[in-house]
Automatic annotation (TrEMBL):
<comment type="subunit">
    <text>Interacts (via N- and C-terminus peroxisomal targeting regions) with PEX19; the interaction occurs with the newly synthesized SLC25A17 in the cytosol.</text>
</comment>
<dbReference type="GO" id="GO:0015908">
    <property type="term" value="P:fatty acid transport"/>
</dbReference>
<feature type="transmembrane region" description="Helical">
    <location>
        <begin position="12"/>
        <end position="30"/>
    </location>
</feature>
<dbReference type="GO" id="GO:0051087">
    <property type="term" value="F:protein-folding chaperone binding"/>
</dbReference>
<keyword id="KW-0050">Antiport</keyword>
<feature type="transmembrane region" description="Helical">
    <location>
        <begin position="163"/>
        <end position="185"/>
    </location>
</feature>
<keyword id="KW-0576">Peroxisome</keyword>
<dbReference type="InterPro" id="IPR018108">
    <property type="entry name" value="MCP_transmembrane"/>
</dbReference>
<dbReference type="GO" id="GO:0015230">
    <property type="term" value="F:FAD transmembrane transporter activity"/>
</dbReference>
<keyword id="KW-0472">Membrane</keyword>
<feature type="transmembrane region" description="Helical">
    <location>
        <begin position="67"/>
        <end position="85"/>
    </location>
</feature>
<dbReference type="GO" id="GO:0051724">
    <property type="term" value="F:NAD transmembrane transporter activity"/>
</dbReference>
<dbReference type="InterPro" id="IPR023395">
    <property type="entry name" value="MCP_dom_sf"/>
</dbReference>
<feature type="transmembrane region" description="Helical">
    <location>
        <begin position="205"/>
        <end position="223"/>
    </location>
</feature>
<dbReference type="GO" id="GO:0044610">
    <property type="term" value="F:FMN transmembrane transporter activity"/>
</dbReference>
<keyword id="KW-0812">Transmembrane</keyword>
<dbReference type="InterPro" id="IPR002067">
    <property type="entry name" value="MCP"/>
</dbReference>
């Protein structure tokens, strides 16, 4: 039984990773636009397509895909860790009983914490590589010069200390509620729909994936803005504020942001983020559900795949 469970978790993990990589690749330019809007406060363009057009005009056609490889590798690791932990914990805790929304939320939360602690360094490097060579409107930003993932790790540890790799950990831990909220709504909506019909169509999965992600993103977006700023960590302001993104820093950055841009400043780039995450999440869940179902059918493990 244990071998089936761990094998099952592995299938979920691989399917989750493949699903997210496919989805992220398709909607990657939207993420580029969102990150620019969050980090580069002086950028005048407000809408997503205007920012993307500007980036292409100033930095070339492939600029919206800058940093794709590190993002995809991090995403692969991150989702593998998340889905593996989520499904292993769920299998251990639920043990054949019906899962409840509360259990899904707790399991999602624990899986998220494990994920954050293991993969934050990858995302810090990611954010830097993605913004490298960008034409910023804000002159307080110190440019970087990394040759690739390994070189970025090396330079950050050398110049800023090993803890800089965990920049933004605190908001990331708070953001663990994002996938937890998303999974809770996703599993809940799925359960509601399954009461009415035998199985979900692709469109059903796509729609509930989209709804659950939209709710989770809107609730947690201000934290994501702060997380991006901390991970990027290249603003010349407040050198003493370079620690691990403690609660004080997070509150300070939130306060600064509201003071300068009003409450809507916390939601800068939300349109791009919603477009990207909702479409990505929906497509990811679609690929994930299809892949796990196909794999379990092929392996004759249909009975093991109960929710």
């Amino acid at each position: 039984m244990a071998s089936v469970l761990s094998y099952e978790s592995l299938v979920h993990a691989v399917a989750g990773a493949v699903g997210s990589v496919t989805a992220m690749t398709v909607f990657f330019p939207l993420d580029t636009a969102r990150l620019r809007l969050q980090v580069d406060e002086k950028r005048k363009s407000k809408t997503t397509h205007m920012v993307l057009l500007e980036i292409i005009k100033e930095e070339g056609l492939l600029a919206p895909y800058r940093g794709w490889f590190p993002v995809i590798s991090s995403l692969c690791c991150s989702n593998f860790v998340y889905f593996y932990t989520f499904n292993s914990l769920k299998a251990i805790w639920v043990k054949g009983q019906r899962s409840t929304t509360g259990k899904d939320l707790v399991v999602g939360f624990v899986a998220g914490v494990v994920n954050v602690l293991l993969t934050t360094p990858l995302w810090v490097v990611n954010t830097r590589l993605k913004l490298q060579g960008a034409k910023f409107r804000n002159e307080d930003i110190v440019p970087t010069n990394y040759k690739g993932i390994i070189d970025a790790f090396h330079q950050i540890i050398r110049d800023e200390g090993i803890l800089a790799l965990w920049n933004g950990t605190f908001p990331s831990l708070l953001l663990v509620f994002n996938p937890a909220i998303q999974f809770m709504f996703y599993e809940g909506l799925k359960r509601q729909l399954l009461k009415k019909r035998v199985k979900l169509s692709s469109l059903d999965v796509f729609i509930i994936g989209a709804i659950s992600k939209a709710i989770a993103t809107t609730v947690t977006y201000p934290m994501q803005t702060i997380q991006s700023i901390l991970r990027f960590g290249r603003h010349r302001l407040n050198p003493e504020n370079r620690t691990l993104g403690s609660l004080r820093n997070v509150l300070y950055l939130l306060h600064q942001r509201v003071k300068r841009f009003g409450i809507m400043g916390l939601y800068k780039g939300l349109e791009a983020k919603l477009l990207q995450t909702v479409l990505t999440a929906a497509l990811m869940f679609l690929v994930y559900e299809k892949l796990t179902a196909a794999t379990f059918t092929v392996m004759g493990l249909k009975s093991a795949h109960k929710h």
